[in-house]
Amino acid sequence: MQGEYALDTQIAKDKSGNIWVWGYYNLCNIDNAGQGGYYGGGKNGAVYTGNASGSCGGVTINNKPSVIRGFTCATDVAGSAYALMAVDCYGNLYGWGDNTQNGSVVASDPAFIAAGGPKTNVTGGVYGLYKNQKGASEAIPNTVNQANPQASPETWKPIDGPGAPTGTYPGGDNTSKVVKVASNEYGFAWLKDDGTVWTAGANTYGARGVGKWGNTVDQWGSVGTAGYPVGNSWGVALSPTKVTFPGNVKIKAVYSGYLSYFAIDTNNQVYFWGQSYAGGAAMSNDELEAYSSSTDTSKPCRSLAGSNYYCFAPVPVPSLTKLIADNGGFTKLLGGYSYGAMLTKNKKLWTWGVSTDGVGMPESDKQNDLTYRTTPQVLSTTAVDGSTVTADNVIDANGAYHAGQFVTADGYAWAWGQHKWGGAFSSNMSPTQDALPTNDKDRPGIVWDPTKDPQHRMAVKVGGNKDGANLNLSDGSVYTWGENGGGVSLGGQGYGTTVCAYGQPGCVSPKVLATLGKRAQSGLYVWPATFVPEVQNVGSYQTVIKNAYPFQATPVHDGDEVKYTVLVRNELSNFKNPTVKIEDSWGQNGTLVPGSFSVKYTSSNSKDTDIDIADRFVLSPTGYSTTDPSMQLDPLSVIAITYRVKVSGTTGNVGGTVVLSNTDGAGGRLIPMRP
Questions:
Q1: Which fold has domain 542-664?
Q2: Local mean pLDDT, 10-residue blocks, the chain (675 residues)
Q3: pTM of the full predicted structure?
Q4: Which residues contact 296 (CB under 8 A, 6 or more apart)?
Q5: In Å, what is the CA distance from 473 to each residue of 450, 553, 568?
Q6: Where are the domains positioned within the chain?
C-alpha cells in the first residue's frame, strides 16, 4: 500500500493498482467533494458511509476507507480539492468526482450554447473535460453507479490515452500514452509519453499554462472570472489544453504546486507556471519581472502586489536547473502554497520560499512576516526536540499546503512546517500522555521512529493532503496525522466527535485540542500518527489481491475474454510462515481458456524466482484450489496466479471471490517441486 497526494482527502494505491479513498467524499456542503461524484447518491466514486446532510451540523462523519470500484491497474493517481484522476497500466487517463461545473458562471461560446450546451461554470474538479465542446462531458458518466457497478449500462471512458476516442480534443494526439498525472487545488496536469503536457480545470492564477488570452488586460489579469483561458467570444476552454514550452522541448516529469506546476524537460531544464507567492517558484522578483507585464500579452507573467506573480505559461527556473546539475539529478520536486522543495539524486532535500510556519525556511524563527528566500538550501535546522536535523539521507518526500514530510534511509519519517496541518505537533509521540508540549515554532520533528516500534518496521514513503499527511511502513501499513477534516487523519472517522484510536490502551484518542496541547477525545488534530486498518487486506501476515481487466465487477459480454491476476503475499520479513490454502472461482458463466492457467512462486529470502508450482493446484469447471494442505509462504514471498476466462451466456457476470485459509506455521518454507 502506498499513500498518495490529494488536496482535501486521503488516497492510497495498493500493489494491485486499486485506489483507496477516505475522508472527504460525497460529504455535506462539499457537494461532490472529489470522490462521491454525485451528492446524495454515492455514484461515480467511493460510496458514502455516513448520513450527513446540509451543513453537517452535529452529525458524526464516518467516511472510512473505500475502494474506487471498477478501476484497477492504477499506476498513478492525484486529487484536486474536488476530483480525482488516475492513470492505468495501459496509459489511459480517467477522471471522476465533481464534473457538474458548479461555481461562478462565465459566458460560454455561443456556438456551444446553440448546440445545446449549458452556460459554463468554472469551479469544480474534472470540469473542462468535454469531448468536442458541443456534447456532454466525458470522464465517468452519471449512469455508472459505484454502489452497484454491475447494474450500470455504461463503463468508464478514458479522458486521454490509447483507449480514449480519437480526434476529440482540438490539436491533441490522444493516442499516445499518459505516464503521469499531477493536481493542484482546482485542476490537473498530465504528462504523455510523447513529451507533451496537458491541463484541465480552472485557469485561476494561470494554472492551465496556456498563456494570456485575448488582447485586453481584463481578460487574463485578475482573480475571478478573468484569468480563465477564453477564445474570441470569452468562451471557457472546455477540453484539455496543451501547454506550450519555450523551444517546444519534450517534458519528462511534471509536479504539483498548490496553485502551480513544475515541469522538467529531457535536458533537466526546470519550468514553472501558475501562482508564485513569497518565493514559491524559486525565482527572484527581478527574474519574474523580466517575464511580466500588465499590458504586453506576449509576456507570460504578471506582477501583482508585493511578491505575488502569476505566470500564465511556463518560464525557466535557473536556480532549480542548476540544483539538478550540481547534485547528479533529481528524484522529486514539491510545491506548496508559498514554498517548494526538491529531492536530488544524492538524497538531499532542498527547500525555498516563505518563512511563515517554517515551511520554506525551516531554519528561520520568523513566523509571520513573509520573509522568504528563493535560493534552494538543504533543510538543516534545530528540530523540535532541540537536536539538529539535516535532510541529507532522504529517500522520499511530500509537499502540502503549509507543511512537508520526508523519509530517511534509516526508516525515520519526519515532518516540517505548520505543526497542526501535517507538520510535527509535538516531540512526544506517546498516545497516552495527557498534555503535550506543542511545537509552536513549527520546528521539524520525527513522526515515525522504527526503534520505538515493537516490530522495528521502517517508514518507506510519505504522502498526504492539504492539511494532513500519511506515511507507509515496510509492511504496507498506512498511518495518518494532522488536521482531521472529514476524518482524513483518523481513518475517515471523527472531526470533533468522540472516536477511540485503533489499538490504543483504554481507547485513548490520538487527537489533541488546538489550545494548550491537551489531549482530548474531541480535538481536531491527530497526533501521533495513527494506524488506518481499513485499507489493509486480509490475514495477519499475508494479503490476497484479485485483479482483472476489463474492470472487476463491470458488465462483460458473450465471447469476451477476461484476464485475472491473483497475488498471494507474505509481506513481512520477521514473522512465522503461514500455511495457506487458496480457493477461487469464475462461476458458471465462464470457461477457462486452455493453456492460460499459470502459477509462479517467488521468495526474496531464498532467492527462488518464478518457480512453476501449477502442479500444486487442481482445476474444476468453475474454479481452482490448492491441493497441498501444508503449503507455507516464506517471508517476503508471493504466489502469482494468472488465467483467462471466456465469457458465455448473455448475463456475462464472471469472477468469484478468492478465499484464503491459513494457520500460522512454526517454520519451514514452501519448496516447489522443480521440473
A1: Immunoglobulin-like (2.60.40)
A2: 79 80 56 36 35 39 64 83 82 69 41 47 37 38 42 58 65 76 88 92 76 47 35 46 91 94 98 94 96 84 85 95 98 94 98 95 82 96 96 95 96 96 91 78 96 88 91 85 84 60 42 60 77 59 60 64 80 64 84 94 75 92 84 80 82 64 53 37
A3: 0.75
A4: none
A5: 9, 30, 19
A6: 2-267, 379-535, 542-664
